[in-house]
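Write out this protein's structure.
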Amino acid sequence: MMRRDVIVFDIETVVDADAARRVLRLPDADDVEARDALAVYFLQKTDGRNDFPRQPFHQVVAISYGHLIREPGEEGYELLMRRLATGGDSGSSEKEILQGFFHLIETRVPQLVSFNGRGFDVPVLKYRAMAHALACPRWFHQGDKWNNYDTRYSSEYHCDLLEVLSDFGASARCSMDEVAALLNVPGKLDTAGDNVRALYESGQTDAIRHYCETDVLTTMLIFLRHQLFSGSVSAGAYARAMLGLYNYIEAESEMRPHLLEYIQAWDQSYSVPDTGT
């Protein structure tokens, strides 16, 4: 059964300095020192291979999402663009951001779409929700044994494009930017994940939120192409979904300059398909 609501999402994080201080027994370290020390800690734990912290240590600073509605049409399902947004505002606490995300799960029971959501985003969200003593019963009780939010091989409740496109690890896992380059759609613009910490520590939360939204758009474009390839939507429905998304971004870009940059990148690399109508 296809879910009516489709939530394409992405998160941005920084190292939780408080958790770093606790695990490293460095109560007097400032935030920058604590984050640097945690990188050294994980570098040592992996014998110098990787300083990237494990999921519990990632403090969520932004959750962005694109909301699509799946409606029946003459050729099967249509995917209609509803909105692109980021939870809360630039001053929202992590707890408030998480509450908003899990409220979507509880009230709409959507199909989630991510890129590496099972490997990173979802574990982070679960750990951080527990850190704030939040509850989301629907996550664990919706669906059945084979189709639910935690089932790896079913996309009904969560389509992780990194998993799907690599046949769940049978082939190489490609980055989102690499897949975007293949499909000739906008990928990373001027900001990348490596920049988030510097933006956060300089108080540029809005820039992080904007970057997260553009990653959602790229994820959405990849998802739509996969929906076409898999036969979940017809060629006409795919073209209409792309045109609807393009028109939405173009209209929103008048008030949201980061979307103007995205639509300009789209214009340079890709033409909107003919809807045939």
